[in-house]
Amino acid sequence: MSASRWRVLTAYLPGIASVVNSFQSPEVQLAVFESLMKALDEKAEAEEAQLAAVKSKSRAPKSVSRDVSSDGDSELAYDIVEGESIHALMGKS
């Protein structure tokens, strides 16, 4: 179990216990518990994926430079990173 999953589980466990214990039938309690755990797993996976996407995007090299030719003219040069839109880079200089 990852550390982030453990933190999420311990944060939500009191609420999960409260909801599960509000039902009398052990079968219903089990079904509710399994449903809540599945939802919690999906939430944790989505948050981890979102965090990984943000981290990978922040690490992606983005640069804009001006190349100056020998006659003094300058030309913009863009490094395009996979998944980037050229339109996103056009406003950056």
Word description of this protein:
With 93 residues, this protein is of the alpha+beta class. It is built from three helices and two strands, in the order H-H-E-E-H. A two-stranded antiparallel ribbon has the order 1-2. Helix 1 packs antiparallel against helix 2. The protein is elongated and about 55 Å long. The two termini are 44 Å apart.
Arithmetic mean of pLDDT: 75
Structural class by SSE content: alpha+beta
* Main sheet summary: 2 strands, antiparallel
Number of helices: 3
Contiguous uncertain segments of 5+ residues: none
Shape: elongated
> Termini, distance in Å?
44 Å
Report the portion of residues in β strands: 5-15%
Q: Got a strand count?
A: 2
Q: Considering DSSP H and I runs of 4 or more, what fraction of the residues is helical?
A: 55-70%
Order of helices and strands: HHEEH
Offer a concise description of the structure.
It is elongated, with a radius of gyration of 25 Å.
Any descriptors?
93 residues, alpha+beta, two-stranded antiparallel sheet, 62% helix, elongated
Chain-wise SSE layout:
Layout: H1 3-21, H2 26-59, E1 63-68, E2 74-79, H3 86-90
Antiparallel strand pairs: 1-2
Helix pairs in contact: 1-2
